[in-house]
Amino acid sequence: EPKTQPAQVAQVSLTFDNTRGLLPSEFSHVTITRRFHRSGESEYLINEVRCRLKDIHNLFLDTGIGPDSYAIIELKKVDEILSDKENSRRDLFEKAAGISKYKVRKKESLAQLELVDKDLDRVGDLLFEMEKNLRSLERQAKQAERYLRLKKQYQEHSLAFAQKALARAQAAQAQLKPK
User: Fold this and answer.
1) Which of these, 13, 43, 44, lies nearest to 30 by C-alpha position?
2) What is the tally of structural domains in the chain?
3) Which residue, 1, 14, 27, 71, has most beta carbons within 10 Å?
4) d(CA 23, CA 59)
5) Which of 34, 28, 30, 29 lies closest to 10, judged by CA?
6) Is residue 101 part of a domain?
7) What is the C-alpha radius of gyration for the chain, rounded to an integer number of angstroms?
8) DSSP code of 65?
9) How large is the angle between the packed helices 100-176 and 88-97, nearest 10 degrees?
10) Structural domain contains residue 99
């Protein structure tokens, strides 16, 4: 029997009826698609338009559909809500009220701020090192200028000394010549 070649792409699509406008989209039907390529690459689409997984999460954030959603509550979660373990009741009400997307955005913003703070610390360290190097280079530049100035003076004095010595030698030679 002939062996079939493995598929290069696997694709799954879910279509949601949005005629009541529960999803923040102007379309009456919203299709979420994930394509998984044999190479390991994965792509996401909303209504055949490429997007990020984060965009899909944001689309469903306040709808009660998705991971940790309030639309379907397991029995263990009901017990937690009734006993209010770990603020379960508050979390449920925040998700139902649509606050959860702002909490997610706040968490992302705080993470970005932390990265920016780390970057600023690195920039501060680099600036400190550069200022230290600048002071060292300024000292070296002053030493080099002093060296060049002294070298020029030495050459000028050496030339003047050689000219005077030559003049004396020529004068002495002239006196030694018979007249």
Assistant:
1) 13
2) 2
3) 27
4) 7
5) 34
6) no
7) 41
8) -
9) 90
10) no
Report yes or no on 144 lying in a domain: yes
160: left (phi over 0), alpha (psi -120 to 50) or beta: alpha
Residue among 106, 71, 68, 99 at smallest CA distance from 86: 68
Which residue has 């999803």 as its token pair?
A: 23
Rounded to a whole number, what is the distance in angstroms from the first to the last CA of the chain? 128
How far is 113 from 11, CA to CA, in rounded Å?
37
**Structural domain boundaries enclosing 128:** 113-169
Q: Which residue has the higher pLDDT, 39 or 90?
A: 39
Amino acid identity of residue 45, one-letter, is: L
The pLDDT tens digits for 28-76 are 999 999 999 989 899 999 999 999 988 888 887 767 666 555 555 666 6
Helix (H/G/I), strand (E/B), else coil: 47? coil
Q: Give domain status of residue 34, yes or no.
A: yes
For residue 117, give both structure tokens. Answer: 């703070």
Tens-digit pLDDT profile for residues 105-139:
899 999 999 999 999 999 999 999 999 999 999 99
Higher pLDDT: 37 or 83? It is 37
Q: Do residues 78 and 88 touch, judged by C-beta distance below 8 A?
A: no
Structure tokens at 111: 């993470």
